Amino acid sequence: MEIKSSYEILADLLGRGSYSLIYVEQNFPVPLESKGLSVPLNTNESIELILSSAVSGSGGVGFYHSSISPRSDLELRGIALFVTTQLPKRVDVPIIFCRNIENLLERFSIAVKISEEFKIPVLLCCNENSLSSFIGINSVDCSIERVSSFITQKTFDNLNSIKDLDKFESIYKYLLKHFKDPYEGNGNVSFNSQDGIFLKFFVPYFSDFSYISGCSVATISEYLFFKNNNSKQSFDVKFEPNNNSVRFCRDILCPGCPFIIIHKNINLKDKILTTDVNCPSVRRIFGYINVSLEKVIGITFNKPNSNLFYVGNLSNVNNKLLPMMKNIEFIFLNDGVGSVNLPTVSKISKFKTSNVVFPYSCNNISKSSPIKVNTKKCICFKKNEKPHCVSGTLCPALQEINGAMSINEKFCVGCRLCETSCPYGAI
Asked: How many helices (DSSP H) and strands (DSSP E) are in the chain?
């Protein structure tokens, strides 16, 4: 029989699992090494990276000595496993508990299987005793089949899926069948102490403590887990149409909108469009998905053919994340805060490439003198055509007066986008 430490067991499991992304928090008690990360990340960044990566099919494992609370409102295609020595402050995902090193191999493997089979993040919560001991084992059995990773529009829908209570119920039944009993030991429920009742697993919404001390709330260390009602709630929402309140208006964007310029100068056909700019008009008109840079990086992690385009504010860019953006086509909007070591667009007229810093953002659009319309050349309405300047810019400064376009100087920023859109030279 071979004697192994917790480090050797975990290292063996990680090697057999073929994980492309491994994050180890600096103060984690077992000296494992991170994998797939070229720069140091903080705790929150690493969690988002692992979750987003798992959504697209890569996935990974994180090891933490601090209290973390991964969210479950997403649909995974790869494994997302979080190993921690502290109890979570908020419970959104199934938890597998490990008190002794004798159970480390089994509990790690079952946590991986739950994440893989039910496509959900899983927390493996180990106390210090299980990570500082030795045990005799014959072999490490950990077989994991990987799904192929891919990125589509649906990938981003999976970033914010609705919690599925049926899934949690299935996980609870699966774990109860595997472990036979969710508890071990006698006495009060505890995590850090070797004495008393110890949980083998916990599943949000379905784990029941009602028969412990005759109450529906059980204390684990200083945290509380509440018993939840198993029944699903549904609401019927009816929309009563009121024809008198219906209004029709054309799509408009801010005068000089950088997204208009980007789409005029860069071929974005067949691209998945993402942005951290929270503009409903941009999302509706161009089909952008509102998502943070960290999530985009996680989704494209280790995928050279991601076919993804990202527009974000420069102030939200963390410089240490730039080396991890090699699989993303992007443009940063200069909102006057922050700087990066990237080429900057000097003249809009020569703007033809991505992976650059745009000279302004939605919040600080550059302005110059308003421009005029030559009404004699403005013939779109006479030819029963939709105004090319309006369709090409969606600018609110453009108004129809007496069968010709006019420019409202209060709105106009002099971006000259309407001039480049007019085929008749009227602007």
From this structure: 10, 19
Domains of the chain, start order: 2-226 (3.40.50), 258-358 (no CATH)
Nearest 5°: phi and psi at 33?
A: -115, 140
- Is residue 104 a contact partner of residue 133, using CB atoms and an 8 Å limit? no
Return the number of other C-beta atoms located less than 10 Å from residue 10's C-beta.
22
Sheet holding 329-333, edge to edge: 289-290, 272-275, 308-313, 329-333, 356-358
Q: State the first-to-last Cα distance of the chain, in angstroms, to the nearest integer.
A: 85
* Cα Rg of the chain, angstroms: 28
Strands (E), 127-237: 134-137, 183-184, 198-199, 201-202, 217-220, 223-226
Burial 38-72 (b: 16+ CB within 10 A, else e): eeebebebbbbbbbbbbbbbbbbbbbbbeebbbeb
Extract the runs of DSSP E, i.e. beta strands, from 208-364: 217-220, 223-226, 272-275, 289-290, 308-313, 329-333, 356-358
Where the chain has pLDDT below 50, the residues are 140, 142-145, 209-249
pLDDT digits (tens, 9 = 90+) for 18-48: 788 899 998 899 999 998 887 788 899 899 9
Which runs of consecutive H residues, i.e. helices, occur in 134-226? Answer: 153-157, 165-179
pTM: 0.72
Helix (H) or strand (E) holding 122: strand 122-126
